[in-house]
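tokens incoming
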């Protein structure tokens, strides 16, 4: 196990009516009321009443609320710049996100931009490192990205999808009411479940040895997602199952499952190329295509880890040899993806015409991706070709 230093300062408010305590919690954290910016996506936040509930909670605590909707999936830098320009001189004390990962990541980028004189995109290009951000609060409406507890932020700009991870953007508090997931359409349920699964998987597949504790924690969380993901898809109003999924998704990306280990992240890097190329592609759907193709390609380089995944996560009985066990484990995983009604090929994803060679080279523009096996452009091209 590697040395590590870990601190998760996000206060998690979980359960029925969690969103009604946003104002009180923000007041506890900030010490005094003032102006806050509430960021949200589309009309669903208005139709379901959650936006109104959050704003009422803030106003009752003495805050003056400014709000801005219009965040799109695969959030765009243009919207972030526009928002920063609008509120920079208005004395905003905090940014409150009401939505899923795209909205929360937008709020994080805006929060960084408010404390930076240059262009916020500098952070994503590696030209500057954020050291300060306005406080962020996250009210979750889609369990998927785990951004509500994480130090991560991913933004799209002119076809490039780039991410950063810095402690100053970890939300001060996250609010999760599983009842707020009851109106989600099936594709968002499935894509979200796959996304949170991948956040643990990208940490679990590691070359670091002597990680029994985090291995066991990750395997238990992955099994929980495998069990309850199809249940919430079958019955979107299953509160108890949503509690398991909501909690698993929130912890999947807060750094806990990566303690003391080198993480991989090749699948995310590859998928970001696909949804960066076509911003209408849902991230979780893209991952459903990339991960099995990555597994088939990489498993021969790290067979022991894939055997463990097959047996301890997918519940496969050890076969006559490692290869057979691995193949059965991957096949069972693909079957689970299909049970979630997600695509497993580029064609089914609607990306059969994606420029595989150029995406692979762009993916590796800064060097290899992944750590379980470092992948160069030829490797990425082979994986995407295998995903057709």
């Amino acid at each position: 196990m590697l040395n590590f230093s870990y601190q998760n300062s996000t206060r998690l408010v979980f359960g029925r009516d969690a969103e009604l305590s946003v104002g009180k919690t923000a007041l506890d954290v900030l010490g005094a009321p003032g102006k806050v910016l509430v960021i949200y996506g589309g009309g669903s936040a208005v139709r379901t009443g959650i936006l109104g509930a959050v704003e009422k909670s803030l106003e009752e605590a003495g805050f003056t609320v400014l709000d801005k909707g219009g965040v799109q999936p695969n959030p765009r830098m243009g919207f972030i710049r526009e928002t920063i320009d609008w509120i920079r001189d208005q004395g905003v004390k905090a940014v409150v996100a009401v939505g899923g990962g795209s909205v929360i990541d937008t709020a994080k980028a805006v929060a960084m931009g408010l404390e930076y004189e240059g262009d916020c995109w500098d952070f994503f290009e590696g030209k500057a490192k954020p050291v300060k951000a306005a406080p962020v609060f996250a009210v979750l409406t889609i369990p998927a990205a785990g951004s509500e507890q994480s130090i991560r932020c991913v933004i799209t700009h002119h076809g490039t999808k780039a991410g950063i991870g810095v402690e100053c953007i970890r939300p001060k508090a996250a609010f999760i009411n599983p009842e707020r997931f009851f109106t989600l359409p099936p594709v968002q349920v499935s894509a979200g479940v796959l996304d949170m699964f991948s956040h643990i998987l990208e940490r679990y597949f590691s070359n670091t040895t002597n990680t029994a504790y985090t291995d066991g924690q990750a395997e238990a969380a992955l099994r929980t997602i495998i069990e309850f993901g199809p249940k919430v898809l079958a019955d979107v109003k299953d509160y108890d199952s949503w509690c398991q999924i909501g909690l698993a998704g929130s912890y999947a990306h807060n750094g806990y499952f990566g303690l003391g280990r080198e993480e991989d992240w090749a699948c995310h890097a590859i998928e970001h190329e696909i949804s960066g190329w076509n911003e209408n592609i849902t991230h979780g759907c893209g991952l459903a295509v990339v991960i099995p193709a990555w597994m088939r390609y990489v498993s021969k380089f790290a067979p022991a880890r894939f055997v463990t995944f097959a047996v301890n996560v997918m519940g496969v009985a050890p076969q006559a040899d490692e290869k057979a066990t691995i193949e059965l484990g991957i096949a069972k995983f693909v079957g689970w993806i299909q049970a979630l009604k997600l695509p497993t090929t580029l064609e089914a994803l609607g990306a059969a015409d994606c420029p595989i060679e150029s995406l692979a080279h762009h993916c590796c523009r800064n060097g290899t991706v992944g750590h379980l096996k470092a992948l160069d452009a030829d490797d990425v091209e082979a994986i995407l070709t295998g995903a057709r």
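note: The mean pLDDT is 97.
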